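Input record, target 12 of the design panel.
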């Protein structure tokens, strides 16, 4: 009798879990379009050099590129989104309240919006490296880290459907064209690579949480 009751409880539990899983993954239908809203730095983001700020603005393009590769979400055309918001005189700021989100969704004819922030970009010393052709001249290694968050939001209800946070790290081994970052001279390529890596990883995590799948 006890075994029969345990089996029933287990069966009911599995059924409920399957419904929870299906419900989470089915929040978006296959035909639902998503608008990626170009994002910038969070309100806590320090003021860096113009070049560093410009490099962090590459994040949305990297996010879009990786979402297209994944194929899990159907994004609205970038030019359509930009032109439509401009036509409707909707300004994208660091903080978007629920009324603005609803206004954006209505203007684009799109219920779901993908928002994000470059939360920070830091640099720290990471030991030394000896170039093969200059063994006696160590090069101080600098580690550049960019932090990014993504949020898939229902514009109608202001609810977050899925969210992800990620860090992208790149070791600055070669000098190249440098920029000043937190008192250090780092290469533009290292900054760019850290932004790219953080964007890619944020998309991977977002998709995993949205569709409960592992890459």
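The sequence produced for target 12 reads:
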């Amino acid at each position: 009798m006890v075994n029969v009751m345990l089996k029933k409880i287990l069966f009911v539990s599995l059924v409920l879990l399957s419904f929870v899983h299906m419900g989470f993954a089915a929040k978006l239908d296959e035909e639902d379009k998503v608008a990626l809203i170009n994002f910038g730095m969070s309100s806590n983001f320090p003021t860096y050099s113009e070049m560093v700020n410009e490099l962090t603005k590459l994040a949305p393009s990297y996010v879009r590129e990786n979402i297209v590769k994944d194929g899990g979400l159907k994004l609205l055309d970038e030019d359509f989104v930009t032109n439509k918001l401009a036509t409707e005189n909707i300004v994208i700021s660091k903080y978007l309240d629920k009324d603005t989100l609803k206004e954006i969704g209505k203007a684009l004819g799109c219920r779901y919006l993908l928002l994000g922030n470059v939360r920070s970009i830091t640099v720290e010393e990471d030991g030394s490296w000896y170039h093969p052709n200059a063994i006696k001249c160590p090069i101080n290694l600098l580690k550049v880290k960019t932090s990014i968050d993504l949020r898939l939001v229902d514009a109608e209800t202001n609810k977050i459907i899925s969210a992800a946070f990620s860090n992208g790290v790149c070791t600055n081994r070669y000098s190249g064209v440098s920029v000043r970052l937190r008192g250090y001279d780092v290469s533009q390529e290292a900054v760019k690579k850290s932004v790219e890596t953080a964007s890619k990883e944020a998309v991977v995590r977002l998709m995993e949480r949205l569709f409960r799948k592992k890459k």
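The first strand starts at residue 33 and ends at 36.
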